[in-house]
Amino acid sequence: MEQAILTIPENIALAIQGGGNVSLSRRLLELATIKAYELNRITSKQVMEALNLPDRETLYQFFKDNDVKDGYTLEELDRDTDNLEALLQQRRQ
Q1: Statement: the pTM of the whole predicted model exceeds 0.85
Q2: Less Cβ around it within 10 Å: N or C end of the chain?
Q3: With contact defined as beta carbons under 8 Å apart, do 42 and 36 qualify?
């Protein structure tokens, strides 16, 4: 496991913590994993591993609580919908 030592001004550290009762190191880990996930550098499974989340339901709640963008675009949704409709059409024939 990698470790990093950071020097952060106290007012910035307090702002990062957002007034919550989560430790600064935990909040920084959360923010780093969120950003890495949004940039498609890590998977949702890796987010769960990094944050020691017990299940996907907890992961999805974490994402919701932190306004995480999943990167699933409207274009991808349209493509997936078209593909599903084509598969269902083939099945009916």
Answers
A1: no
A2: N
A3: yes
| Residue-range definition of the domain harbouring residue 15 | 10-92
48 inside domain: yes
| Secondary structure class of 35 (helix, strand, coil) | helix
- Reading the chain (93 residues) residue by residue, the pLDDT tens digits are 889 899 999 999 999 988 878 999 999 999 999 999 999 899 999 999 999 999 999 999 999 999 998 766 677 778 889 999 999 999 888
Number of separate domains in the chain: 1
As a whole number of angstroms, the distance between CA 68 and CA 25 comes to: 19
Residue 86 in any domain: the answer is yes
d(C-alpha 81, C-alpha 76), whole Å: 8
